[in-house]
Each structure stands twice: as structure tokens, then as C-alpha cells.
Specification:
It is built from 32 helices and 33 strands. It is α/β, with parallel strands linked by helices. The chain is globular, with a radius of gyration of 25 Å. It has three domains: 218 residues, Rossmann fold (3-Layer(aba) Sandwich); 213 residues, Dimethylsulfoxide Reductase, domain 2 (3-Layer(aba) Sandwich); 117 residues, Beta Barrel (Barwin-like endoglucanases), CATH 2.40.40.20. Helix content is 37%, strand content 17%. The strands form ten sheets. It has a six-stranded mixed beta sheet with strand order 6-5-18-17-16-7. Strands 25-32-29-31-30-33 form a six-stranded mixed barrel. A five-stranded parallel beta sheet has the order 12-9-8-14-15, sandwiched between helices. It binds ligand MGD (2 copies) and molybdenum atom. The site of molybdenum atom (MO) has 4 residues, from loops. The site of molybdenum atom has 4 residues, from loops.
Amino acid sequence: MTIDAPKNDIDESTLEVTPPKHYAAGVPAVLVSLKRGLEEMGAVRTGRTLFRLNQRNGFDCPGCAWPETPGHRKHAEFCENGAKAVAEEATLRTIGPEFFAEHSLADLSERTDFWLGQQGRLTHPMVLRPGDTHYSPISWDDAYRVIVDHLKALPTPDEAIFYTSGRTSNESAFLYQTLIRSYGTNNMPDCSNMCHESSGTALSDTIGIGKGSVSVPDLEKADLILIAGQNPGTNHPRMLSTLEKAKGNGAKVIAINPLHEAGLQRFKDPQKVNGVIGSGVGIADEYLQIRIGGDLALFQGIGKLLFEAEDAAPGTVVDSLFVEEHTAGLEDFEKHARAVDLDTVVDASGLTLSQIRATADAIAKADKVIICWAMGITQQRHGVDTIREMTNVLLLRGMMGKPGAGVCPVRGHSNVQGDRTMGIWEQMPESFLAAMDAEFGIESPRKHGYDTVDAIRAMRDGKASVFMAMGGNFVRATSDSEVTESALRSCDLTVQVSTKLNRSHVMAGKTALILPTLGRTDRDMQAGGRQNVSVEDSMSMVHLSRGRLTPVSDELRSEVAIISELAVKLLGPSHPVPWNEFHHDYDRIRESISRVVPGCENMNARVRLPDGFQLPHPPRDSREFPTTTGKANFTVNELDWERVPAGRLVLQTMRSHDQYNTTIYGLDDRYRGIKNGRKVVLVSAADIAEQGLRDGQLVDIVSEWPTDSGVEERRVSEFRIVEYDTPKGNAAAYYPETNPLVPLDHVAARSNTPVSKAVVVRLEPR
Ligand SMILES: Nc1nc2c(c(=O)[nH]1)N[C@H]1C(S)=C(S)[C@@H](COP(=O)(O)OP(=O)(O)OC[C@H]3O[C@@H](n4cnc5c(=O)[nH]c(N)nc54)[C@H](O)[C@@H]3O)O[C@H]1N2
Ligand SMILES: Nc1nc2c(c(=O)[nH]1)N[C@H]1C(S)=C(S)[C@@H](COP(=O)(O)OP(=O)(O)OC[C@H]3O[C@@H](n4cnc5c(=O)[nH]c(N)nc54)[C@H](O)[C@@H]3O)O[C@H]1N2
Ligand SMILES: [Mo]
């Protein structure tokens, strides 16, 4: 069998630009999936993986966290981008000791993210010791010894940081936090800090639980679905099938997005006849091309208009029964909402008054309303307030805890929600820590730990010197790349448990370890036989995932194995946690989870049900709100938005169609018409004209950040201007190439999430 050689590096000069597409998926998507599969893993593995994706006895797609339709797990359900995620992991290309002997650290650091990721699966534990120019092989036992020696030498466990990315299974996340808390710290930053933290913070305030309140059947039943700050055609393609069904049942969809994303316009389902030869289905009935950062204003305007509609036809808009029985804080909210100035809302959002009125009218009249959102909302300075304001609108209309209505934060990584449920959080509540202590006879630390941004600050300031990551690509995922890179390099030890090579392996601490691990698709054999793991999707369904592929190397260890083996060495053989039993039989881990994590009782039996089981959600299940008031809270939020200084643009950093976060699959952003390159900046015709620039011109993007001592500048070079339909004053470019532009302190209020979607920049012609 031949596996294609890795792709060559990027030549941005061959960039091609064609008009953006107005629909998503369709035949090209299926062809792309199969082609990627065959290139990376050959026919047999392609068959074994793609047709086992999201099936009852198969593995959970490592793509996004969009759920399966209950009862449908028996059908192969996969999408183009899920297939790419699988091909990326199941590739037969490998990089072992010879690769690292050939490529020095200096060589690797010159390579692009694309090149690093394309080299293949990691096969051996590798070490870089002080003064080494190359990584060299190390045995697992010696690798654990290096970690234990460093951790034991720290003056306090709080000088170590333990990151988690969202592919980690429930079982390994639970064990990982048990290890970290047994060792003695809560320093557990995770990718969620950069992702839906704003959603968790806002929803905890308003409804008392940081998770979405709807399921797939709710979306299928809704009358009105708002989709704000999300690009499902690329990032959650299976959501389009759900939207298609909702539309078929009569739902109206309103998209709120500065860009006209293809998947929000029309969907041709490749698994249906009309999707292959017909014109597919239209998705958005209305498209609000909002200005970046204008959503808080929009929802405040809607709040005001709902009260006015209630005045005009009393008893028809405000759900007074719900409001009286289940909510608190209406009076203050009403006073604030009525005082909102609609001219300001128009200015801030860039929308017309009639668009805003039509949206409010649709919300006022629909019986079942759902609001979905993702990174366009959460990665904003006012992300938390915006989500609180969306909730205000829904609460006023009683859209909580009834079929077809509610809040729907659409999660990213396939188990990012589960990792949090399992205790990966720097500030888990006392109830969880007490349950851990009772289960294991340990003493979990109570002092809150560092989140992602605080972890970088701690390393930068010399307050932390050991960094370990369970997956992910910390230096490329986080903001302010230069600061973060030097923070990581200043550590005494960095440890990356990974499937594939990435920039975080290259930005190595004085001593650095790469520990290769099994992925979702790989068969996981332990002393107790073949193991499976579980994950929780965006709608709180927990189900099993079982890998089938033969691992590419005998040296790979599962995350559970790595954590347990390290724990025994770090904590000693008499530690009360039964690490060896956990290692050998993951059912034993689930037994402990059953006792510690509320809602996971009897997990081993329930996770084996055909659709798994759904975690409790009091607002959804019984209109109970575990908030400080015991009711759903209306909130009052100051109106603010992103102003565009003269001659400047507000830049959002987003994903192309050919990437998974920091992993670059290819160089095309098919739906947006960008081919063979990534260093582009999308700018409106009006700004191009006003600033005397031209389409196709090469520019540097310079971000400007006011400080006490003046304006700090950050720069990325040689980006090509692409004229694109985005609101005047706004621009868009791809992440992670533009992460150097996002200042570390540019974070969302309260959630501390980097503001990746609104950076003030200027374009400097080369
Ligand atoms: N194939 C693929 N799938 C993925 C991922 C991937 O990289 N590749 N990543 C996964 C992860 S971890 C996540 S979190 C999700 C991310 O899923 P998305 O949130 O869809 O990802 P982004 O590309 O960041 O897209 C943000 C969207 O918000 C819009 N936007 C930007 N600013 C604003 C604003 O101010 N207001 C509004 N209303 N909209 C705005 C942008 O135009 C864009 O459409 O996808 C997950 N799934
Ligand atoms: N500017 C900007 N920055 C952003 C964002 C943005 O929109 N704009 N989005 C943010 C968001 S939403 C997120 S979630 C973060 C993503 O942050 P991360 O989760 O840290 O990044 P990923 O790119 O998903 O991580 C990819 C790496 O994970 C490893 N990996 C893959 N599968 C497995 C596995 O099964 N086990 C283990 N141990 N390792 C595995 C591989 O080595 C791979 O290189 O980035 C954030 N950063
Ligand atoms: Mo994410």
C-alpha cells in the first residue's frame, strides 16, 4: 500500500481567490473526505474508520462536539471535516527516533505548523535535555522519572501547571485531575478557557448551570433558531442536517454574522438525493451582517423592543407566568432595557432599525425559540454580558425548560464539555472536591489555580516552571505568541502528551518530553482486555467510544496508562487511589466517577445503553435554577461595543475550512473561495478604497494595544488583502497565524478568555 508523502510546505505566492460559495457540503465534500482518507491511511483503514464513525460500536468523532440524533447512532454519520479529523489521526505516516535525529530543534522551529502536523504520528517517547540540539529517545520509565524528579523538587505544587485539551476522554480527564489534586494543585488551565468559558460564566449567573439547555430534538421542533457567531458549515457540519430537519418542520432561522458564511445560507446534504443532484435547502431566512462586537447592543435593542411589543398588545409577549414563578430581577432589567437608545444600537451593530425590529418581532411571535452561538460571541470583551443578554431575551419569553426552546452554546472539541464535568477546572466547587476526598481519602487543595491566561503570566513571571499538557498545542492556541513561547521556553520542564508533532514540542523547556499517546481511533488494550472510553457531547449526552485501528507503534500508551503509571511513581505505591486497577480496567474508573460526579450514577451500565445517557440539567428538566437566588436571573449589563478608530480595523481571527484549530489539514478555505494559502486578510471594498489600499496587495498587520506608557505594537508580516463582503471597519484572518497580534491582557471581562475576535489593527503596505 502506498501512503502519499507529506505535502510540501506553503508557497503563499500561488494563492488563488475565487468568489465565495453560497452553499455548503454537497458532492465535493464527500469526494474530499474519501480522498483525504485514502491519502493518509489507505483503503483498509479508510473503510475501518469512516464507516465506524459515530456508530454504536464505533468511536466518537474526534472532530466537533455536535451530538448524534438520538436513535440514529446505528447509521454512519460523518461529515467532510470529521473525515479529515479522522484521516489526520489515523494516518500511517509516522515519525520516530530517526526523524528527530534528522531534524534538530532549530530546524523544526523554522517549519510551519502545516509542515509539523503533516509529518505523521509520534511513535516513541522523546527527550530533550539541557544543551541538546536534538530530541532523542527515552524509555517510558526514565521519562516518568524525569517528571517525578522535577515535580518533587518544586518548592510548592503550585509551581506546576497541567493543561488539558478537549479530546481527552472522561476517564483520562477524571484520572488526570485526581493525579493533579493528589499532587497538590488546582493549576488546571484547559482549552475551554479560550473557548466557551464566557458561556459557562454567563449561564451560571443566569440559569445556574454552565451548559446548554437543548437537545437535537429541541432544535428539530423549534419555530425560530438564531445562530450567532458560528460557522457551522465548517466547524459543525452535522449541525446542518439538524437545521435542515428543523426547516422542514417549519422553523425560521436568523443568522447573525459579519460574514456571509456558506453553510448558513444553503445546505446540500451529501447523504440525500436532493443534496446530490438538487439545490439543497436554504438555511437562514434572515441574515444580519452585524459588526464585530455588536451583538450585546443587538440583544439589548431586542429586549427593549419586546417590552414595547408587550405594551402594544399586553399579555402576548412577556410570559408572565414563567417570569413570576421562575425568575428574579425583572424590574431592574426592564428599567435598563426600556432606557436603551435604539440609535446607539443601530450604530453599534451596523444593522438597520428595520432589521432589528424584524428580529424582535420574530422572537415576540415564535412559540419556541433557541439561540445558538459559538466563538464569534464568546471570544469578545463583552462575551459574558452578551450571553447574559441573550438569556434575558429568552427568559422574558419563557423559553427555558420547554421543548423546542432554550440556550445552545455549540461546543468545540469533542469532549471539552466532558472534561469540565470530570473536574478539569481551576475552580471546581467545594461539593466536587469534598466528593473526591471522600471517594479516595485524599485532601484536594482548595485554593483556586491558574486558568490559561494566568498560567502564561505565571510562567512569564517565573512563578511556575513545570508545564505538562494532556493534548493540545498550548503555544499556538493561546494569544500573544511571542510572550507565550518565551514563557514556555523559560520552564525547567515541559511535557507534551500528544498524538502528533506541533509547535508546542518545538517551544521546549530546558528539559522537554514528548510522550506519544493513543488517539480516539486506536485500539486500547490493557491488562484487563480491550478498553473503551466515554465522552460528553455539546448537549450533555455521555456515550462510549471504542477505537478499532491497530496502533502505529507498540510504544504508544493510552492517556489513562500514562497518568496511572506516572501517579504510582509520583505518589508512591501506598497512595490510596487504586491507580493500577484503574489502569487495567476503565470500568473501575467509571465506578469512581459514578460516586463523585453528580448525574453519573451507575455509569457503567448507562454508558452502554444504545444512545448512552444524558446528564441532568435542572433548568431543562424541571425549570429549577440552581442560582444564588434559586430562580433564573435577569441581569443588567452596560451597553458597550467595539469602536473602530480612524484608519484602523477591528480584526477577527477565525478558522478556515481546512484546519482543526492549530492543526492545518490543507491550504484551502473552499467556501470562502481562498485556495493555496492562509496568509490573507479579508477587508471590505469600502475600507480598501478609503485607506488607499488595493485588492491583492501585501501588507503587514499591526495590532495596537494602549498601555500606560503609550501604544504597544505587535506585527505579523506579508499578508495579502482579499476584498471581501464584511462590514466596513472589520477584517478577518486565520488563526493561529494571527495569534501574535492578540495581547495577553486583551481578555473577556470575567471569563478571562482571550479576545480573539476583536483586535484593533492597521494594515501597513509592504
Ligand atoms: N473542521 C473544524 N471543526 C471544528 C474546529 C476546527 O478548527 N475545524 N474547531 C472546533 C472548536 S475547538 C470550536 S470552539 C468550534 C469553533 O466554531 P466557530 O465558532 O464556528 O469557529 P470560528 O471559525 O472561530 O468562527 C467564528 C464565527 O463567528 C463569526 N464572528 C466573528 N466575530 C463576530 C461577532 O462579533 N459577532 C457575530 N455574531 N459573529 C462573529 C465569524 O464570522 C465566524 O463565522 O469548532 C469546532 N469544530
Ligand atoms: N486567535 C485565536 N486563537 C484561538 C481560537 C481562535 O478562534 N482564534 N480558538 C481557541 C479555541 S476555541 C480552542 S478550543 C483552542 C484549541 O486549543 P488546543 O486544544 O490546545 O489545540 P488543538 O489545535 O486542538 O490541539 C492539537 C494537538 O492536540 C494533539 N492531540 C490530538 N488528539 C489527541 C489525543 O487524542 N490525545 C492527546 N493527548 N493529544 C491529542 C495533537 O498533538 C495536536 O497537535 O484554541 C484557541 N485559540
Ligand atoms: Mo474551542
